[in-house]
What does this fold into?
Amino acid sequence: MTIGQIAGDQTYSKRCHVFLEQTLGVPKAMVTSSCTHALEMCALLLDIQPGDEVIVPSFTFVSTANAFVLRGAKIIFADIRPDTLNLDERQLESLITPRTKVIVPVHYAGVGCEMDVIGKIAVRHGLSVVEDNAHGLFGKFRGRWLGTFGCVAGQSFHETKNITCGEGGALLINDNNLIQRAEIIREKGTNRSRFFRGEVDKYSWTDIGSSYVMSDVLAAFLYAQLEVWQNIQAMRQHIWQYYDQQLRDWAQEHGIGCPVVPAHCEQSYHMYYLIMPSLEKRQALISFLKDRGILSVFHYVPLHLSPMGQRMGERKGNCPVSEEKSERLLRLPFYNNLSREDQDRVITAIREFYV
Ligand SMILES: Cc1ncc(COP(=O)(O)O)c(C=O)c1O
It folds into this structure.
């Protein structure tokens, strides 16, 4: 038996690239080993140097910040909007200094950040925008796909995402000037991609880089889902809407918050969450559900309060909205084949919880 070509950039990786480029209308897409690695590539591509400042919401996954910290950047933590839990663009300008290089909006739960305002601020100050679109594939902001606003964007195909290959990601490149170097950085700092295309007769070391390619085995797994992405999104939309129909009124009566999706945002249906009245109530509901065999989880300890954030000199009170929402947020079970029966069990249990 021959195994065939299963390293990076073979048949299925190429299909994933073409799919993402054609569907989203981006000049270049490259599948990567993770979104973390796609974000690391962004920091390399933008030549982030020690001391450069990068504005990141505190309420996000560690990789949003770490990708830039690895290049020596100083992270400036932004607080979030109380409604969408996205980077608060109204506070952005006060965080910009002469050392600022990049703004990293994270489209939390696949609901778009206020990209028109963020884009204008970036242009005014000569800054790059890197979208962390780990949650937001197929979401839109004012009719435009998330991931197409920044000069570059990271996508995640981790097992927790709507579309997954276990571990994986993609880099979307909207600035043509970054494409050639991205190919080199992703291929261990070599021009192997050009060699594969027959543009050079041998490949060699031309820049810094690492191994950010995805195995074609994983790309095949991924492509099978990309082919039916509309079905997957429709399933998730049904699940999200059912939670919302069944829980929003009840939640309001009990002082519990539900996701806010502004009219100009088409979300990616990545998650459904509740904002409980307090940390104590949130913890009590997690254990109430656990006793009934239902796993619900909190999301994101604010980065500025993490041990690493504190070593950077951050302290409680610096991003008050992130701190408060993080203590109260609870994610409900949400996966593509969650049955109506199981969803009813979750909803019934929540409604039985004495708030
Ligand atoms: C906002 C955000 N960015 C980046 C990542 C990292 O993605 P990956 O696990 O593909 O590296 C995650 C992971 O869930 C995330 O939530």
Q: What stands out?
A: The mean pLDDT is 97. The pocket of pyridoxal-5'-phosphate is lined by residues 34-36, 60-61, 63-64, 106, 132, 134, 156, 158, 160, 169 (CB under 6 Å).
